[in-house]
Predict the 3D structure of the following.
Amino acid sequence: AQSVTQLGSHVSVSEGALVLLRCNYSSSVPPYLFWYVQYPNQGLQLLLKYTSAATLVKGINGFEAEFKKSETSFHLTKPSAHMSDAAEYFCAVNRNQAGTALIFGKGTTLSVSS
Amino acid sequence: KAGVTQTPRYLIKTRGQQVTLSCSPISGHRSVSWYQQTPGQGLQFLFEYFSETQRNKGNFPGRFSGRQFSNSRSEMNVSTLELGDSALYLCASSSEGQGRKEQYFGPGTRLTVT
């Protein structure tokens, strides 16, 4: 069965500091992995995806993630945090082969201080 | 291209009533999935429709049902509402073209059951 674990429900960083949000997955089918961001009172916006091509994936807003099969991880990073990055971030893995049904982690709230 | 739209955005219902939520996918997308988001349970997959057929179903009681029309628009119905059904209901659509596995989310319908 598929599952996603996000380590740390809340991460706080200073503006300009490195952002690292952790995600580990378990999947019985070839995994497709996604990071989504959610701003207050809004839906989910796709940041980036891994679908078995390059293991280092670049997304929007300067975010990137590296798929590590040996560690079953897909951590999200950004070299320099910006105030506008404050939001809730969700890691997800496909529930089915087509990737049209997702299992989400519990989410990590990112706070950015000046 | 217009994004995923959901109506209504906010809804207040009384326990025991039923409710219908609507979702219009991105033009050309034939897959529509529904998710429930609550503070306690996080994001949970409800069901997915593709070409008017339910293709995947999550672990929700039969009070939760859906359908998809020939134009790919989808509706979700919840009968005999319970207080615990208060949540943000998110709809997502996806294209099944080669390499495309991501889902695009709407802004959600916030349902409050009193």
